[in-house]
Design a protein that fits this description.
Layout: H1 42-66, H2 70-96, H3 104-111, H4 122-129, H5 136-160, H6 164-190
């Protein structure tokens, strides 16, 4: 199943999930799904997705302020810059829907309330994962957990959305989250 979703390396854990000794996805299966009714237009899907990316950017910036050393602070700032790239991609997709004059600033104002990817608040993520904000490995692990939650959310929304065009947009965003997870994996390998 994972290989069919584009994951190149898939490992079978002997004993299944019960034998797994590391962290797993958290929260109820419908976590964050309340952000999407299923009847969203492509424009509405992009607006919600933008607010999620913006919320995660704000999270990383607030974590940079809490960082215990410059290396970790720089890491959080790098992660926040990646979210800006995601936001830019979403604005471009919106422009492609027939709104070529839409600016990132105008879109941000239109997107409204910011939410965190995956459906948890900043404090809920910190409480669940209790990362050591002085550890690069813990910071990247936290980012990977958040991105995995986001990927899961977009895949579930893709099954829920009724419009084919909206579904296509959601699945493209899910693919971008998958690519972001891969880049975080490379970053983890460097650490």
């Amino acid at each position: 199943m994972l290989a069919g979703k584009g994951f190149e390396k898939v490992y079978n854990v002997s004993g299944g999930i019960r034998a797994w000794q590391s962290q797993t996805a958290v929260g109820p299966q419908d976590l964050g799904i309340h952000l999407f009714s299923g009847g969203e237009s492509p424009e509405e899907v992009l607006t919600v997705a933008y607010s999620l990316e913006e919320g995660l950017q704000d999270f990383y910036l607030s974590m940079a302020d809490r960082a215990e050393n410059e290396k970790i602070r720089s890491l959080f700032l790098k992660l926040s810059e990646i979210e800006v790239k995601h936001q830019t991609s979403i604005v471009r997709a919106y422009q492609d829907l027939g709104y070529p004059d839409m600016t990132q600033e105008a879109f941000s104002a239109m997107a409204g309330e910011k939410a965190m990817e995956g459906g948890l608040t900043t404090e809920e993520y910190l409480d669940l994962f209790a990362p050591d904000l002085g550890s690069s490995i813990d910071v990247v692990s936290l980012a990977m957990s958040i991105e995995a939650q986001a990927l899961d959310l977009y895949q579930r929304v893709g099954e829920k959305v009724s419009s084919d065009q909206s579904r296509g947009i959601v699945m493209k965003i899910a693919d971008e989250e998958k690519a972001h997870l891969a880049s975080l994996g490379r970053l983890m390998d460097e650490i």
